[in-house]
């Protein structure tokens, strides 16, 4: 007990204070305050279950280091902070929203008790004990859980204190990774991600932009212990520490270090109040060529963004921020707040007086039993030498004041970050209580009207909090992973506007260990889109090895390329590894790969060209087919059997299409199909020409005396049968070849260097020779017969056209053989495709171009008389 009392009296002893409650006309002067100054003001709403809230609503202003160290802990805080005030009303709004919900905690009214901790650890501890132990000055009820801990140190302190009592603490800002330890802090939960994720994000930003030489400024508490943020390959030139108690001298020292450093990227992992001091010191020294990486503690600070003094220094800040969100109805709720509707809200009255410069007490004194002047005189008379006199009261409010048109940090709900974390914390607590009320097993007995919290009940509540897995009112899934929630951050950038002010711009996000950044949207410290350069030596890329410089840091080195056949596949590799004999290093010397596969693909220039030519042939052939079909009753089309002409056009289209099968990566089926398609398509084409030639000869031979019976052997049925017979022979040859020894893909290792040609091996040279030989036999026969019929007397003799086409056909394929044998690698395939396309175009143009010319441009010659004229 002596130790307890000594600790209490040394940290925050009892002091005299005034009790300004409104009971009667007297102001009570208490000799002792049970917990000191922090319990003077609170926001209370009674209910079946009371949830505690602890916020840094006030601060102790100080301009010098010695002012802070000499400031007594029991001296009242001054300066109401608007952002924390908004956090507290986010808690109030969530509680009232839940109380209106008929499905969540039906029949149970939630209450709240909100205290101020003034950013001081002793007061935070006093507030914590007041909440869990009850307070005779307020409702006196202990709370089953607390929403609080605006810092990691406070979270550690509260969790260590409340752990034996099994009272859960749900923090909205404590982000130290140490708090994820469930063995040390089993009662701690938080709605802000662990700093591990934002530390990882900062490291990824450094790696992404190749910043290997960085300075760091951290805070001297649990929030700033993040030296492990950077991994291998990134060096810290310096680490400066800022202490809140000595911030002025620390900021000056850190500014001088930054000014003298060669690192152009500076990481600052501190609270925004300390950062403001540092940036002011940098502005005094005109240090404007540094790129700052910001932690979530200051990356969205409006206080810094609106400070014109630091705009040149802070331009281009890239930071990790708590994810932004919206709370439906929250803005209307804030703007509807009024002291008349909340007469017991001491924080709202003070905010009202600060915002409008008047006292909202008029509404109370208008209905009071005593005049306001009597009340003030009594307060003045009760002053003692130990209690400072009260300040002069401001003028009374008119009653027309409203927050509807007020624009400040308090009413701005466009990007709710910490306030949304508070909102989530309340809903997590409510759902845990709901699950506890709905539990019917013997392990979770729980009374509906909770007036006294037992250890067994607290344990059950902890169990339900660990199981929370809910969907918020606007559709977001929320659950705890131990003490943590799934990590989600915004990546923000401070960009200077034309009028000179800094604007917060969203440029990316972090989801767990996934970072998404829109680099083109980032404005860097130079004001341009050029990424800052911050290295001692550029990291050796894969394909090189590091050679450390003697007497210099590890991040200062030379890069030596690996020799051919050796690789290094890591950035900053110390040695190059030699590849096995069957492998070879790639061009960048970064990997041992099987000798590079080389084949004719659709993506290269040659493949694209051949594909385009083949597709053009298909289009032209189709156009001719359509033209002939539309003019199928004209003599030009009907001459020499129009059915064969259409079949010939169809076969030519197949010839163009079969060339596409040769392009692309060879496979088992493509190798088999390409040669069969090639052989059958060309046999069908040449068969049509051969039959047409035979028909021409038969027609003119039948005109001689005694040859009338010759045409019965060349009727339409016989023509179709002949084409079918010639084609079937090729089909049989291909089927036999593919069944006995089909073509298969193989790697040709005969070429020197790192490339290996992937090609289709013929399997059987005899089969390939038979396919080509049969095509050549038909072509030569057709050429011979067409040559014999070239001088027949008709004005339009198709035999001449067939003769020219077959000459071109045979010339192409005669030239094909030596070119095919001598071509290297993938160009073997290109030669075959070229031969297919050249012969197909030769047949198409020589046979059908003259006919199309007459049909389209000389229709007067498209008559039977003109065609049969000698």
Automatic annotation (TrEMBL):
Per the annotation, which location comes first and is thus the protein's main one?
membrane
Fetch the InterPro entries from UniProt. ANF_lig-bd_rcpt, GPCR_3, GPCR_3_9-Cys_dom, GPCR_3_9-Cys_sf, GPCR_3_C, GPCR_3_Ca_sens_rcpt-rel, GPCR_3_CS, GPCR_3_vmron_rcpt_2
Where does this protein reside within or beyond the cell? Answer: Cell membrane
Keyword Transmembrane helix carried by entry: yes
**Recorded topology in the membrane:** Multi-pass membrane protein
Question: Could you state one GO cellular component term attached to this entry?
Answer: plasma membrane
Q: Which family does it belong to?
A: Belongs to the G-protein coupled receptor 3 family.
- Give a single Pfam family match: 7tm_3
Transmembrane segments annotated in the record for this chain = 606-630, 642-664, 676-700, 721-741, 761-789, 801-821, 833-857
In Swiss-Prot or TrEMBL terms, this protein is called Olfactory receptor C family, r1
Q: Where is the G-protein coupled receptors family 3 profile domain?
A: 606-870
GO MF term list: G protein-coupled receptor activity
Q: What's in the keyword line of the UniProt record?
A: Cell membrane, G-protein coupled receptor, Glycoprotein, Membrane, Receptor, Signal, Transducer, Transmembrane, Transmembrane helix
> Does this UniProt record's set of keywords contain Transmembrane helix?
yes
- Domain of life, source organism: Eukaryota
């Amino acid at each position: 007990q002596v130790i307890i009392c000594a600790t209490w009296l040394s940290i925050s002893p009892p002091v005299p204070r005034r009790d300004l409650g409104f009971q009667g006309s007297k102001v009570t002067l208490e000799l002792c305050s049970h917990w000191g100054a922090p319990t003077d003001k609170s926001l209370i709403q009674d209910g079946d279950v009371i949830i505690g809230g602890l916020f840094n609503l006030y601060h102790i202003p100080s301009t010098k280091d010695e002012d802070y160290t000499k400031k007594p802990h029991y001296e009242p805080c001054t300066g109401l902070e608007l952002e924390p005030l908004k956090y507290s009303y986010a808690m109030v709004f969530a509680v009232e929203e839940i109380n209106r919900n008929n499905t969540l905690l039906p029949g149970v009214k939630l209450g709240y008790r909100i205290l101020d901790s003034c950013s001081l650890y002793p007061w935070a501890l006093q507030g914590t004990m007041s909440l869990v132990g009850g307070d005779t000055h307020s409702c006196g009820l202990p709370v089953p859980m607390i929403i609080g801990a605006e810092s990691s140190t406070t979270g550690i302190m509260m969790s260590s204190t409340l752990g034996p009592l099994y009272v859960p603490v749900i923090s909205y800002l404590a982000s130290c990774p140490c708090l994820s330890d469930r063995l040390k802090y089993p009662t701690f939960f938080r709605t802000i991600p662990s700093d591990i994720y934002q530390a990882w994000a900062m490291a990824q930003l450094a790696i992404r932009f190749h910043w290997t030489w960085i300075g760091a400024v951290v805070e001297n508490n649990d929030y700033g212990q993040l030296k492990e943020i950077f991994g291998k390959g990134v060096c810290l030139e310096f680490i400066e520490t800022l202490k809140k108690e000595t911030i002025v001298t620390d900021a000056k020292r850190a500014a001088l270090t930054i000014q003298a450093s060669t690192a152009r990227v500076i990481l600052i992992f501190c609270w925004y109040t300390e950062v403001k001091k540092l940036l002011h010191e940098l502005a005094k020294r005109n240090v404007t060529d540094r790129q700052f990486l910001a932690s979530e503690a200051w990356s969205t600070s409006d206080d810094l963004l609106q400070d014109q003094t630091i705009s040149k220094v802070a331009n281009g800040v890239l930071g990790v921020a708590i994810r932004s969100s919206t709370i439906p109805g929250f803005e209307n709720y804030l703007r509807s707040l009024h002291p008349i509707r909340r007469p017991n809200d001491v924080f709202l009255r003070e905010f009202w007086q600060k915002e409008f410069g008047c006292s909202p007490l008029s509404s109370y004194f208008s209905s009071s039993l005593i005049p306001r002047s009597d009340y003030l005189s009594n307060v003045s008379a009760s002053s003692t030498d130990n209690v400072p006199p009260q300040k002069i009261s401001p003028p009374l409010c008119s009653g027309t004041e409203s927050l509807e048109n007020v624009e400040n940090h308090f009413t701005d709900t466009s990007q709710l970050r910490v306030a949304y974390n508070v909102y989530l914390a309340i809903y997590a607590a409510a759902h845990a209580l709901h699950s506890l009320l709905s539990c019917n097993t013997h392990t979770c007995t729980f009374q509906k009207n909770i007036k006294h919290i037992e250890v067994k009940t607290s344990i059950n509540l902890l169990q339900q909090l660990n199981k929370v897995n809910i969907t918020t009112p606007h559709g977001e899934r929320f659950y705890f992973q131990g003490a943590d929630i799934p990590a989600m951050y915004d990546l923000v950038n401070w960009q200077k506007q034309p009028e000179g002010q800094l604007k917060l711009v969203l440029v990316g996000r972090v989801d767990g260990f996934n970072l998404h950044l829109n680099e083109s949207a980032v404005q860097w410290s130079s004001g341009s889109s050029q990424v800052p350069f911050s290295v001692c030596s550029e990291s050796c890329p894969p394909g090189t090895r590091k050679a450390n410089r003697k007497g210099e840091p590890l991040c200062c080195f030379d890069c030596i390329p690996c020799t051919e056949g050796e690789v290094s596949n890591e950035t900053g590799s110390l040695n190059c590894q030699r590849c096995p004999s069957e492998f070879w290093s790639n061009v960048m010397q970064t990997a041992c790969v099987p000798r590079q596969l080389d084949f004719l693909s659709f993506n290269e220039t040659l493949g694209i060209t051949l594909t385009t030519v083949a597709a053009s042939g298909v289009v032209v052939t189709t156009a001719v087919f359509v033209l002939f079909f539309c003019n199928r009753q004209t003599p030009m089309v009907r001459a020499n059997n129009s059915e064969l002409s259409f079949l010939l056009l169809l076969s030519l289209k197949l010839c163009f299409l079969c060339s596409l099968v040769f392009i692309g990566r060879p496979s088992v089926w493509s190798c088999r199909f390409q040669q069969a398609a090639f052989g059958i398509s060309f046999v069908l084409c040449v068969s049509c020409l051969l039959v047409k030639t035979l028909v021409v000869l038969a027609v003119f031979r039948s005109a001689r005396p005694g040859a009338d019976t010759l045409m019965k052997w060349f009727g339409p049925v016989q023509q179709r049968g002949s084409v079918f017979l010639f084609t079937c022979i090729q089909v049989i040859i291909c089927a036999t070849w593919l069944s006995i020894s089909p073509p298969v893909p193989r790697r040709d290792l005969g070429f020197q260097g790192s490339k290996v040609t992937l090609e289709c091996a013929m399997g059987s040279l005899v089969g390939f020779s038979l396919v080509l030989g049969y095509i050549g036999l038909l072509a030569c026969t057709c050429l011979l017969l067409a040559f014999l019929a070239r001088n027949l007397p008709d004005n339009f003799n198709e035999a001449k056209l067939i003769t020219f086409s077959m000459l071109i056909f045979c010339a192409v394929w005669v030239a094909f053989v030596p070119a095919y044998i001598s071509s290297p690698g993938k160009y073997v395939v290109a030669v075959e495709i070229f031969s297919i396309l050249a012969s197909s175009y030769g047949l198409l143009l020589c046979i059908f171009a003259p006919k199309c010319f007459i049909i389209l441009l000389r229709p007067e010659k498209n008559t039977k008389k003109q065609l049969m004229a000698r």
